[in-house]
Amino acid sequence: MSAAPLTRTRLIGLLALLLVLALALLTASLCLGSTAYRPWQLWQNTPDALLARDVVLQLRLPRSLAALAVGGLLAVAGLAQQILLRNPLAEPYVLGTSGGASVGALTALLLSGGTALVSLSAGLGALLSTLLVFGLARHDHSSQQARLLLTGIAVTSFTGALSSLLLAIAPEGLLRGMVFWMLGDLSGADWHLPLFSLVLLAVLLWPFARELNLLSHGQQAAHALGGRTRLLQWLLYFSSAAATAVAVTTAGMIGFIGLIVPHALRLLLGQDVRLLLPAAALGGGCLLLAADLVGRTLIAPQQLPVGVVTALAGVPVFLWLLQQRGVRR
Amino acid sequence: MVSRLVCALLAAALMAPAMAAVSVKDDKGRTVTLAQPAQRIISLAPHLTENLFAIGAGSRIVGATSFSDYPAEARRLPQVGSYNSFDLEQIRALKPDLIVAWPSGNPARQLAQLEKLGIPLFYDDPQRLADIPGVLERLGVLAGLDAQARSAAQGLRERAATLARQHAGKKPVRVFYQVWDRPLMTINGEQVITDAMRLCGAVNVFASLPARAPTIDEEAVLAANPELIATSGDSTAKNSWLTRWERFPRMAAVANKQLYMLPPDLLSRMGPRLVDGAEALCAAVEKARQ
């Protein structure tokens, strides 16, 4: 399947399939929750109709949209960093981008900053850690770019320590809200910003899909691009940092989506960025939406943090996928 | 007549706060014995500091953990760290003859180390509002301030009984108590705030959940349709904690404008001011009832 060349029919067919999956999950997410209200009650003439309306339209719908958008952002950010580094291990969590955003958000929270300040500060943190990682490892021309990845891992450890430090000095009253950022959670998440960002990112990157294909085949191949390589690399830096920052401010630190989704899609769909980019945007959203659905219904009305669910369910599936691929070879 | 007088004098001599040994059982069932009433006490939780001040032992405290901010004099006490991580070296250096500890909040490993150092520890672990007067009385024995402690304890018991009497037989009010905003957290039936609710005929809508401080979702709150939503705090940032519910004007609590910000710390500390917290909560419940 992965060997098949990318035709227009295949592209549209596969994306339509993913879109159907996303819509199916969205429907499920609107129908299920900790209470027994269902969307079709909206049109019934019962006293419960108004309550069902609040539950479905004001609570489940915004949260589901936020899950779709944040998952998509994380997967696209992971894909962008993997293309940039041509290294399968790259993703915002591993490279310190999420960590930087988290330190930014925690600092703003510690200073009792409002939502806008928290977002801004998280964005700055993501950008700074990205610049730091790529700045330090700029001259690494080795084919595996091991130095870049190691720098990322070092920066991740550093931001992790900074986050722990901020938590340690935080007063009791702020602590719970801060720990929330470390676990990842979609309750009360805003969907406007992440969804808008995801669409913007997809529109921004899509025209470069062909060139990104060249870039992902190695710097030699990328020389064919001439002076555009630099520009493309910067585009990828910024878009992955911005996507991560928006994802982290919306839902806290959610790991593994950026690693697992692009990989799984590569194993299933092949290497072509023209397909991978929109597929990652949809696939990441599907995975996070499904994880959130499980997290909020499994022991309802009690809630599980979505970051815990993605890691617990996502990692075994990913390991299985890797095994399958090994066997086929 | 004379023998009676001798007896009375003898009894008075024995009761004098001389070098008499004192002994009580703590909440872990251990017997805490001091050769003489405690003179240098360290408190390992803000509510324990409040307990000591309530029985008139405030001047005997030589060290307290952070956030010991009530009464105002408590702010001037030397700090020995926070309740969940304290400075053992400094505690030892302050030469306490009694440490009052809170096993539900203090780390067990550090408490074990304090026990090893040979300093007498009193473990305070009240589960219900009704347990607090008893704690005051036992601390009073250890500090040799029995009479003051007994009257403080009696005062708390009477106020709790008054609340229960005033609200007995009245219509139950469904209450959602919001512990935290994001993630949205509440309390279950084992928690002491639910105990305070029972005093005035309020019912915690999430009493039956298994976790003590469960994270829940908004639709569960909507479905429970509480008649009163309460949280506690004083910062203006927390106002959004309550205003978020105004999006749902059909919820009983919102329709009748029964959203209350209760004074901070009262309901979250297992000390004497818990009764103040219960009174504030019950006043809100009474308004929601009408």
Automatic annotation (TrEMBL), chain A:
Annotated compartments: Cell membrane
Keywords: Cell membrane, Membrane, Transmembrane, Transmembrane helix, Transport
Presence of keyword Nucleus: no
Lineage: superkingdom: Bacteria
InterPro entries assigned to the protein according to its UniProt record, in alphabetical order: ABC_BtuC-like, ABC_transptr_permease_BtuC
Pfam families: FecCD
UniProt-recorded Gene Ontology molecular function terms: transmembrane transporter activity
Cellular component GO terms, alphabetical: plasma membrane
Membrane topology: Multi-pass membrane protein
Membrane-spanning intervals of the chain: 65-85, 117-136, 148-171, 191-209, 234-261, 306-323
Family the entry assigns: Belongs to the binding-protein-dependent transport system permease family. FecCD subfamily.
UniProt name for this protein: Iron complex transport system permease protein
Automatic annotation (TrEMBL), chain B:
PROSITE patterns the record matches: FE_B12_PBP
Residue ranges annotated for the Fe/B12 periplasmic-binding domain, each copy included: 40-290
Signal sequence region: 1-20
Alphabetically ordered keywords of this record: Signal
GO biological process, one term: cellular response to iron ion
Any one Pfam family match given in the protein's UniProt record, by short name: Peripla_BP_2
InterPro entries: ABC_Transporter_SBP, ABC_transptr_periplasmic_BD, Vit_B12_bind_prot
UniProt key word GTP-binding: no
Name assigned to this protein: Iron complex transport system substrate-binding protein
Taxonomic lineage from the root: Bacteria, Pseudomonadati, Pseudomonadota, Betaproteobacteria, Neisseriales
